[in-house]
Design a protein that fits this description.
Chain lengths: 110, 146
């Protein structure tokens, strides 16, 4: 879930989208934004810590690339959430059914 | 996967919209479908709610030796059409997510749409092009197939 919290931020989401196209250096990412290099560094740090981005050294460059595990985490959240509510919405139907049944029964005389 | 993290589920109920709406805010009713042994292997510890906009709820259940507290705040309560609340687990570092229940009456029956999104920021994203997300998923498939 930490992965999801990290990309609620639009700048970070845009960075993730860019890295989905292809790997990039931090410099290339900065050039796409009107945001300072330190700010982008900070965003990249958050993305690394949340598992979205991994870095590898390629000669003089540090290349940022997307980590597919984070996407798998999002898919996991979707599946769990869907299951959670599906089960409960089915149970709600059963509870409503049971109530309807009650109304049709004749009242007990005590 | 080509959608942002938003879960949408539609269900039809053979019951009046008011009845279905009230089932979300009535503790007796909630303990019959949302939580408890009928639902799954869990015990209800304590359910509390304050059914007003801005009011909070706390649904504590025990599974095995673990207590889980589902907490949130009601944002919109428009009986019987719409209910919106935040949803999270107490003690988790993750920000709250948002749940919207829309109910459309149809004679004596109704249709309920549940939308669970991670962050309001995602709403804008959902309406925008899904291209980036689709690409990420393409990338995932690519990596997994290597």
């Amino acid at each position: 879930m930490e992965a999801l919290a990290a990309i609620a931020d639009p700048t970070r989401r845009r960075i993730v989208e860019m890295l989905a196209e292809r790997d990039r250096t931090a410099g290339e990412i900065v050039s796409e934004f009107r945001v300072s290099a330190p700010a982008i560094s900070q965003h990249l740090k958050v993305l690394r810590e949340a598992g979205w981005v991994t870095v590898r050294v390629d000669g003089q460059h540090r290349v940022q690339s997307l980590n597919p595990k984070a996407i798998a985490e999002v898919e996991g959240w979707l599946a769990r959430t869907k299951q959670f509510w599906s089960n409960r919405l089915d149970a709600l139907e059963r509870a409503l059914e049971a109530d309807r049944g009650k109304h049709h029964k004749p009242k007990k005389s005590s | 996967m080509s959608t942002p993290p938003i879960v949408k589920i539609v269900r039809r109920y053979q019951a009046a919209a008011e009845k279905v709406f009230d089932a979300w805010l009535d503790l007796g009713m909630l303990s019959r479908w949302m939580f408890g042994p009928d639902m799954r292997d869990e015990e209800i510890v304590r359910l509390t709610l304050d059914a007003r906009p801005g009011g909070r709820f706390s649904f504590v259940v025990r599974r095995g030796d673990q207590e889980i507290d589902h907490v949130g705040q009601y944002l919109e309560i428009e009986r019987p059409r719409r209910l919106k609340f935040t949803w999270g687990l107490a003690g988790m570092s993750v920000d709250e997510s948002w749940v919207t229940i829309d109910i459309v009456a149809d004679g004596g029956a109704c249709e309920l749409t549940l939308t669970h999104e991670l962050d309001p920021a995602w709403s804008d994203y959902a309406d925008r092009t899904k291209q980036g997300w689709t690409m990420m998923c393409g990338k995932l498939a690519e990596v997994l197939e290597r």
